[in-house]
Amino acid sequence: MSKFAFFIGCTIPYRVPFIETAIRKILPEFEIELIDLPFACCPDPGGAQSFDRVAWHTLAARNLCLAEEQNLDIITACSGCFETLKVVNVHLKNDSKLKGIVNEHLKEVGREFKGTIKVRHFAEVLYNDVGIDKIAAKVKKPLTNIKFASHTGCHFLKPPEILQMDNPERPVKLDELIEALGAKAVNYLNKLACCGAGTRSTDQDIAIAMAHEKIVGAELASADGLVTICPTCYIQFDVGQRLMAKQFEKTSLPVFVYPELLGLAMGFDFSVGFKMHTIKVKDFLEKASS
Amino acid sequence: MIELNEEFKRLNSVVKLCYQCGTCAGGCPVFKQYAKFNPRRIMDKLVLEEFNGNLFDEQQIWYCSMCYTCSTRCPQGIDIGHVITELKNLAVKMSNVTPGIIAEMKAILETGSTTAISQSILKKREKLGLPEIPKADINEIQRLLEVTGVTDQLNKLKEDTA
User: Residue A98: how many CB atoms within 10 A of its CB?
Assistant: First the structure.
């Protein structure tokens, strides 16, 4: 069993908790134990970083300290949390001046950033530590005849020199994870484009138009569903389609996070969570089980 | 304001290799939908030292989705997304912030989280059989926001926008 501090973030538990169910059920199947700690907001790489970069580093460092004190690496299920925590961890490990400023602030709450742990994303742990073969070996109900459009998402990929997850211009890992389930990962128009969530707090219509382009691309490629590894991207595409219908022709493309599909292929019953999706997945599930 | 000018000069030195090829705008997913947000033009204004005033016209910089496609593709290796983030930090000091970001920072200050916990979500969590999550010590978060100046800045924004 490898143990991780589970950084759950704000969006998963309090907006899309069925993602949490999938994560908590799936990871232990691969000998990954999740430990909950009293973390606060990561904080958000868009909002908080835009507001004040020193405060962003300081609040993130407090979260890193909590895991350091338990001698645990962090695993995240949200790419926003992943980017914040990994970028801040790397910055503070390499920039002694910034580390000094942050530690001065942390002293006020009796903590100190030391730089002793790593920050991981669940998709990276599945791909690198578990591996495609072991994942494929756990599949009991392969998703044959299903085509997926993958959306790896910006905060898993960029900045690439710090995150070092996949090729930012030609990511392949999520496609390989999808194909390990017996499904096909299709190429589609705007595959690399941003989901638009980062613009949502400034202009919702534009943010939704950005997500819409991707849904249209996935539909043109005859995808049965769109797969993400981030709750914020998930919300843009799933809840977003309801908002898109105000500006564009109505679409109803099912949207998933990867752990839900992994669970489905492993034979888990996630029906309670699937009912909480905005875009109905009933027809998809029938096709997947046929 | 003197301090802000120093910051602009520092950013000017970061972007001075920009030769206006437009790769940033060409790959920008926001520009594709909204031509008023143009990262090439933001770089141009910085290179030409058009600081203050029109650099922040119509809150343009707040449209950046922070996808960093521009940074990944810039042939001169300028981390454009990061420069725009630094500009946002300066805009905050000039009380030019999109309301959504202010609301988010207030939520972190009050609860330690960006997302309010509603009764309906707690019901959903129960239905899903999810455990209670340990809460962060809010006093620690508030102290850190105080010493980093965020609390003061939020109060100042309240006065400036009142």
Answer: 18
